[in-house]
Amino acid sequence: MVNVAVPVIAKGTQYVIDTAPPAVIKAAGGADGIAARIFRRLDLDDHASEATELVPAQEQVGAGAVDADELHRTDKMTE
Fold it and tell me: In Å, what is the CA distance from 59 to each residue of 28, 45, 46, 52?
């Protein structure tokens, strides 16, 4: 089983940061707030937790290790 929650949260967060107006990002609580909102909306199994999914995703975003362009490319491939 492949764990896709961390990359989904990280890339989704970066996508919002790259595309949303600054006021929206600020109102959502910045990158950490956006990531937390995405995490809460995912239908994850019982073993998923903030420590195993949310925190690693927030660390990737904070480290600049997320390529939002990859998310755009993936989105275009699924059209």
Answer: 18, 21, 22, 12
The Cα 25–Cα 12 span in angstroms is: 13
Q: Global pTM?
A: 0.77
Cα 46–Cα 49–Cα 47 angle in degrees, nearest 5:
30
Cα gap 65→63, rounded to integer Å? 5
Rounded-to-integer distance, Cα 37 and Cα 28, Å: 8
Quickly list DSSP for 13-55.
Answer: HHHHHHHS-HHHHHHTTHHHHHHHHHHHHS---TT--IIIIIH
Dump pLDDT digits (tens) for 32-44.
999 999 999 999 9
